[in-house]
Amino acid sequence: MNNKVNRRTFIKQSAVLGAGVTVLKSGILRAGNSPNNKLNIAVIGVGGRGGANLNHVKGESIVALCDVNAKNLAKAAEQFPQAETYVDWRKCLDQKNIDAVVCSTTDHTHAFINVWAMNRGKHVYCEKPLANSVHEARVVRETYLKNKNKVATQMGTQIHASDNYRRMVELIRAGAIGTPKETRVWCSREPKGGSYLPEVKPVPSHVDWDLWVGPSKFHPYNPGYFGGCLAWNRFWDFGSGQIGDMGSHMLDMPYWALDLRLPTTCAASGTPIDSDTLPLWLTAEWDHPANDWRPAVKVYWYDGGKKPGVPSEVFNREKMFKGVIFKGDKGFLVADYGYRILMPTKGDMTQYTSPKPKDLIPPSPGHHNEWLIACKTGKPTLCNFDYSGALIEHNMLALVAYRVGQKLDWDVKNLKATNCPEADKYIQKKYRRGWVLNG
């Protein structure tokens, strides 16, 4: 591996992250281009993760709250009585004094809220995943790229802000395992299967069920869809299973460390196809082209109890419920959120030169704070919708490959599997009448 090119990459990255340069056009930031001025924020989805995200931005001016559950909305309004309240997020986004939006709804409405907010010049923080299909991820990313000089964006992959992630990236790019060859990523969480839930009557008066279903095909009310992402993201119309949920976190590690973008091929397999629910386990693989500092690499994914072949000494040290193993021509690096294990195959580290202090990735001010600072000053965010939109498109492509049962040759520019016309119906979703993605 060419460490000289690699170090230049680090220096450039460090400079961008540390300098605080303004990349957003002046006059766009209504907070006044100062970290001390408060943003007017709308929080859409205020229960569960929404409540946690609300807590992280409560130091700003909370001017709007939105939720389809009136009980969640009332609880949040007690804390922020000055905020306007809404059930329908589309009406919320019409409020004139909103600078920024925090989206913490169910997965199947993320892309809609992201796109509508950016089209109205709002900064956006969105829980993962950004979208629920390949096409949605592309639309979110392209909408951001059209507006990147006007808005700051961040996907909620909170662990991206950890010091351990930074050390992992530095080790890989500085040659600790030699030239990267492949990466294997896994999460052992085992989801439920089953069919869409039977109707339960009546719909509680505090729930707007039609808005909860939103753009997806209509399914009758059942309280079993509530209770966190594991209750609803196993259903095709509402979520994208473990690769949508935990894949947003775990595949973020190789995406950053290997500077990945979009793949050239994708294949996947899992439990037999079910029209209602996602597979109980899924394995996938992608081919990624070479870039200016590494050759082409393969990336593998395992969930639902499937795991890669990891050196036994690693399992002896850690439970390894989830993790990532980078393989290079001179060693392995195994990592998770809070640890990393470096295992050189040569028995020494003579090929590795520790990065100089100036080449290190600066510490994060905090994942939410990174976005808030970007909204006010234009300083870049690491998980903006260009980076995270590509990551989610990459992950959603595995579900397309799984559903058609075929390795896909991926035409990135045209969003097409050139060898499989059948994939088209899974790349882009159909929506209920009256719902428009790019609104």
Could you walk me through the main structural features you see in this protein, from its secondary elements to its overall organization?
- This protein is α/β, with parallel strands linked by helices and 439 residues long.
- The chain has a domain at 18-159: NAD(P)-binding Rossmann-like Domain (Rossmann fold), CATH 3.40.50.
- It is built from 15 helices and 15 strands.
- The protein has helices at 3-19, 49-57, 70-79, 89-92, 107-119, 134-147, 163-173, 209-213, 229-232, 241-250, 252-257, 312-317, 367-377, 385-404, 424-427; strands at residues 40-44, 61-66, 84-86, 100-103, 123-127, 153-156, 180-187, 265-270, 282-288, 297-303, 322-328, 331-335, 340-344, 408-411, 416-417.
- The strands form two sheets. Strands 13-12-11-7-10-9-8-14-15 form a nine-stranded mixed β-sheet, covered by helices on one side. Strands 3-2-1-4-5-6 form a six-stranded parallel β-sheet, with helices on both faces.
- Helix 5 (107-119) packs parallel to helix 6 (134-147), helix 6 (134-147) runs antiparallel to helix 14 (385-404) and helix 10 packs antiparallel against helix 14 (385-404).
- The relative contact order is 0.18.
